[in-house]
Design goal:
The structure is a single chain. The chain is 30% helix and 16% strand. By secondary structure, the protein is α+β, with helices and mostly antiparallel strands. The chain is globular, with a radius of gyration of 14 Å. It starts with 10 loop residues before the first strand and ends with a helix.
């Protein structure tokens, strides 16, 4: 990314592997971070590609694109970093 971009964006992808249930569990347990069908804006939001943005693709098509069932994508907003970390930590526990 540093070679391609002058400035970094706020999109973060976390891949929890091929475990769709674990991704959905973490996705559902987040309290401060809002669930979103798409990413952007000033609030931190999370999206589960396998069940939202890429749900129309077959598992094989998603795999070819590097989209696992355990993947979550975050668009980081302007909230307190400490609050975001606490929310992620409690969801991952």
């Amino acid at each position: 990314a540093c070679r391609q971009q002058k400035h970094m964006g706020a999109l973060v992808t976390v891949d929890l592997g091929d475990d769709r249930n674990e991704a959905e569990r973490v996705h559902d347990k987040l309290r401060l971070i809002l669930r979103a069908p798409s990413l952007g804006g000033v609030d931190t939001v999370v999206l589960h590609p396998a069940t939202s943005s890429h749900r129309a693709l077959t598992p094989e098509q998603r795999a070819a694109l590097g989209i696992t069932d355990g993947m979550l994508r975050f668009s980081v907003g302007i909230e307190s970093v400490e609050d975001l970390w606490r929310d992620l930590e409690q969801a991952l526990r």
